[in-house]
Amino acid sequence: MNVKPLLCVAAMLSAYGVAQAFPDYTLSPASGSSFNSNLSLANFNLSFKDAKEIVVDDNAMAILMNEDGDDIYSTSFAEFQLEPGTIIIKFDSDEIQINGQWDLTIPAGSITVDGEESPAINASYTLSDPNLGLGEFPQIELLSTNPADGDKLHLWGGDAFDRVDLKTSDDDAVNYIEWKLWDVTNGEEEGVREWLKQGNDNRFDLNRYGHTDDIWVDGLYIAVGGSEKLVEGHKYRLDLRFCGIGYDVETDQYPSDYQIELSTECEASVYYYGLTEAPEYSPYTYEAVSPNPDEYVITSPELGRFMITYSGPVKPLKFTYPLGMGAGTAPAGEFAPAMGNEVDADGCASVWEFVFDESILTSNVGNITCNIETIDKDGLYVKGNADYLFDNNTYSINWICNCGAPALMSIDPIDGSEVEELSSITVTNEDGQVMNLSYVAGTDVIIVDRFGSTVRTLGEPAFSVDNTNATWTFDPIVEEGTYALIIPMYYFNMGEEFSGTNSNATTFTYIVKGNSTPSEAAYDLLPVSITPEDNSELSSLSMIQLNFSDVTYCPLDFDGTYPQIQLLSDGEILQEINPVDLPANDFFDPDEYYISFSEVAEIGNYTVIIPQGIFFDRAYDESNGAQGHANPEIELNYVVAGTGVEAIFGADTLINVYDMNGVMILNNANVEAAKELKAGVYVINGKKVIVRK
């Protein structure tokens, strides 16, 4: 590109007295700078202080010219939107391959600043990049390896095998060796072969720096640290690349891809065969994780729980998380069979629940990984998910954990408020930090009614002067009912912009009172059937099923605080169940509910109390309990009588038996001995048990 005509036009304008009131500018790097890398010569900033309007010509292009008269053109020439008043000019560094002087030219008229076109801008730079002009390197041959090509190996690495020795036709010419180990049992082509390990070794580049610390003074080799078992019947390929450029003492850098490409002297492959017998894994597998870690976010410590379903009965051994920086692992929490999945005689079950220790999650922001090891009754490990051929006992799950994010707070109206109408909502965060839109959230902020129907979709909020509050203003909601503001996860970034913490999904609830005067509600809604029936005698109690004659609702997440469903024994509360989101047969039109307890097998009398207003019809719900129908308090009574000594304790358990007066009947006896007891109530291993004949 010839720029002289443009320069002449600028000179002619000046000669005829045309005003040249172009604003002051700063070019960075400044003219006269020297560089030791072609990357530094590929990026320029042109800044205009106090500029109000900058227009870059559609055809704007800068030119770099070397001493030989060869020029290259900019790949990008545009205003930097995040830093107003700055033009970013970029070149392709791969085109800058000659050291010496380079001249930068920005032709006149490329930019218009506040109505004034730019004059030609010129600058000069000096490049002294040691990576350029590498010259030619001799081509050599690989003569031998130890272990030799075709050898059979148990391990790649380990105490007894920590290196592969190499011999080339010119060992002194080699300064850097790259290697990769592949499993090519199923084929050598890309996409079929399986990568296993890779590495590199080098000496200081004697050809360029004359360094005397030569690790290969006694011959070339590559270090094969770690230990990888090689499977019997598998074929492995070791790819080797010998280069003339090695470690750069002055820059403390390994050779770049460009240097490696130019200085490659030899590429060769050798083959090895495995000798180690592959391990046997359990026939059972990991089938599902619930909730799905790809979608679920742990936003508060009490939500750090999940279930794993296996294809057969197994038992976990470890539930850990990595401490990082090579510090090993630590226990992540507890695990137990999921409700309704009792262990068998071997202590195995098909569904297990894992619960994180809340202290681990409390301040965590970002990701947290847990590792699980599981065996079956035969002691075989369930294969993990790392796809290793050996020692793949670990199943890893990566969770998004955002427990450390400051909670959002509703300040006007306050969460749970009763209002005449709803037309404006202001939120902040509990730490009073600056709030910005994060633009990471995938959905809009919405307001929904009691049944989840969207009644308002909200745009971006207005922020307070200090950016600590955000306010949405919208068309008033005047219809009587309960409404929820739903803010999606990561909608706000709290703290300094670009370095703060993204918010969690948050719901705030409001009650619009309206002007109607509703009639009084009736508490006469009863289930048509209850399983097990009231006053039943059971072997154990773990779940109660309620069936209603028509669609019946129960509380949802955002609908305030409800009394707990209670399980009592002799007036003492044993367990409490939150009625919010009780499991039902149909999410939209439910008429069947399930109340689940931790299983109770202790002999005795039990009472279940279902408080008034837990189940209700649509009219009751839409009127916020002012009219319609809901359940009265429901009391259910059950007798847990056991199922026999062997069923309770297991056939191999040794038992101590006392009568109800505390007199020992059997001491350290086999369960079979209990069959000889008279019918009655006994205390066996600390539990009341009814023996029937």
Structure write-up:
The strands form 13 sheets. Strands 23, 24, 25, 26, 27, 28, 29 and 30 form an 8-stranded mixed β-sheet that branches. A 5-stranded mixed β-sheet has the order 2-12-9-5-6, with no helix packed on it. Mean pLDDT is 86; it is low at 1-19. The chain is mainly β and 693 residues long. It has 6 helices and 54 strands.
Question: What is the secondary structure topology, with strand pairs?
Answer:
Blueprint: H1 4-15, E1 26-28, E2 34-35, E3 43-47, E4 54-56, E5 63-66, E6 71-73, E7 76-79, E8 86-90, E9 100-106, E10 111-113, E11 116-117, E12 121-127, E13 142-146, E14 152-153, E15 155-157, E16 163-168, E17 176-183, E18 194-202, H2 206-209, E19 220-223, E20 227-229, E21 235-243, H3 257-263, E22 264-274, E23 286-290, E24 297-298, E25 305-322, E26 329-331, E27 333-337, E28 349-356, H4 358-361, E29 366-375, E30 394-401, E31 408-412, E32 418-419, E33 422-429, E34 435-437, E35 445-448, E36 454-458, E37 462-463, E38 470-477, E39 481-487, E40 492-494, E41 501-502, E42 506-512, E43 529-531, E44 536-538, E45 541-547, E46 565-569, E47 572-577, E48 592-600, E49 604-610, H5 618-622, E50 634-640, H6 645-649, E51 654-658, E52 664-670, E53 680-684, E54 687-691
Parallel strand pairs: 2-12, 14-22, 24-30, 32-42, 44-50
Antiparallel strand pairs: 1-3, 3-8, 4-10, 5-6, 5-9, 7-8, 9-12, 10-11, 13-16, 15-20, 16-19, 17-18, 17-21, 21-22, 23-25, 25-26, 25-28, 25-29, 27-28, 29-30, 31-33, 33-38, 34-40, 35-36, 35-39, 37-38, 39-42, 40-41, 43-45, 45-48, 46-47, 46-49, 49-50, 51-52, 51-53, 53-54
